[in-house]
Amino acid sequence: MMNKTKLLKIKILFVIFIIIISTIIPNQVMAQNEDVANGDNGATTTTPSITLDDIINNGNSFLNIGDSSHITTEAEVKDISDWVSGILLTIAIGVTLISAIIMGINFLTQTVEDKAKIKESMTPWVIGIFISFGAYTIWKITMNIFMNL
What we know:
Elements: H1 4-24, H2 34-37, H3 52-65, H4 74-109, H5 112-147
């Protein structure tokens, strides 16, 4: 049988996991039924009248999208990279703080022998912090250098 602290840890990690997943995964639906958009409540169903010409024209317009003269600008690349790096930094900070809190609670509530084990497990944790924040720093430096070229 699991002791209370282990069960509490599992519950806390589960809640944190649910919160992180609910903030990462977007929940917005942009689809709309044409009947509802036209004022119908959707109670009746209509079959769409799509012809072979419509399918071919839609296919050709899809293929022509790739031939457009839209070129990604530096500002768009910078905006996307800032957004990605911000999300990754937020996740790294969150994981670091949560793991530090859990390790701190473990350290305060354990016996002397268990405290030694916790201290041993802090080495990979500190290395992980250096790797994650070092990667972020390298990312920002690289983006700043290449944006100025």
